[in-house]
Model the fold of this input.
Amino acid sequence: MRIADTKVISLMIRVAACGLLGGCVHSGVVKVGPDTYMIAISDWGVTSGGYEKAKGIGVAAKYCASIGREILVTSTAQNDMRFGRQAAAEIQFRCLIKGDPELTRPPASLEQQSRD
Done:
C-alpha cells in the first residue's frame, strides 16, 4: 500500500468518526426568565425523542446542581426520528433553591392529566 493510499484511508476514517460522534447537538442551557431555563437537544441516528429528552433533562439537572439548586421540569416537547428528520427534544425547567415549596409533588389529579 502506498503512503498516499494510507493518508486517504486515514482521512476517511477521521471524517466518518466526526460524523458519528458529532451527531448529537444541544443548545446548551439558555436562560429564559428568572430561575427559568431551556435546553434543546437533537441527534441523527437510531434514537427516539424520549431518549433525547432524557439526555436533555440530565444536562439540565447537572446545570442546576452546578449552581447549588434543584431542577424542576416545567415542560417538555419531543420529536421522534423519521426519514429525513432527527430525534429532538426541548426541555424547559427551573433551578430552585433546595426546600423551595414549588419542589413538592403536584396533586394526583395533575399527575394523571400529564399521563393522558
The helical segments are 3-21, 49-66, 108-115. The chain has three helices and five strands.
